[in-house]
Amino acid sequence: MNGAWIIDGPLPRDRMAPAGQTSPSWLRELEERVIAGDDFWQIAGELRHDKAQQADPVKTGAQAVPFVEIVYEMLRIAIRTGALATGTPLIEAEIGDALAVSRTPVREAMQRLSADGLLSRRKRGWEVRKLDLVQIRESYEVRMALEGFATAQAAIRASEEEVASIAAATEARSELDFDNISDRLTSNRELHGLIFAASGNERLVSSIRKNMQYYFAHRFAQFVSREEAALFQQQHELITDAIAARNPAEAELVARQHVKSTYLAFEKFYKLL
């Protein structure tokens, strides 16, 4: 029965850390602050000040993070969260000055963001590209396939400890204050990270991360109604029950429905932009 979702064989030697926990600490902090609504340029200024106090770039443990990665990740997160709104002009010299780096890593980061479909060329520099609803719908449909499949695999492969962690995270979300948007966003990311990690499929989780969109996450969360939030939580609970019951078909079905429900709520929000 499980052959429809997995191929028997060895799993990664070490269980994967939940999505997001494998990111460098500076990147996790950056993402959490931007999603929580902090000002992007203020954060950029703080990073600039921190680097001015150091002989090396921002570090992850003992390994220095290349400047191009800092620029790329900062802008990618800011764009996908809506901290940098669609149509915002981005000038290489200005970005370099804000982050205290030369134009070379900025130019390379911009080119990568353009390849990701997040930036488009303008007469003088770049601008944040606005995706239309067709592109966003397609992105959510890809998410339905990837996240549904990962959730089915989690129902098969999750250890008892992972099942317990998923259940605890789901329960914790039910007790959150609706008006605490930052906690709701963080807990949602952590819950889905636990589920995806439990799939035991590193390549699948990598693909999910690449296709995961945070479009205007903080503003969108403010728009979500109590009824929609209750529906999302109910779906989380059904997913958790299906994983605990080792029912991959039900887990995949509800996970797909959950992504679709999120899109339908986002579609209403997007039309108001």
From TrEMBL:
Region called Disordered, residue ranges: 1-22
UniProt superkingdom: Bacteria
Pfam families with a match to the protein in the record: FCD (PF07729), GntR (PF00392)
Gene Ontology molecular function: DNA binding; DNA-binding transcription factor activity
Family annotation (InterPro entries): GntR_C, TF_FadR/GntR_C, Tscrpt_reg_HTH_GntR, WH-like_DNA-bd_sf, WH_DNA-bd_sf
PANTHER family: TRANSCRIPTIONAL REGULATOR, GNTR FAMILY, UXU OPERON TRANSCRIPTIONAL REGULATOR
Entry keyword annotation includes NADP: no
Record-given protein name: GntR family transcriptional regulator
UniProt KW keywords: DNA-binding, Transcription, Transcription regulation
Location of the HTH gntR-type domain: 65-131
Lineage, highest ranks first: Bacteria, Pseudomonadati, Pseudomonadota, Alphaproteobacteria, Hyphomicrobiales
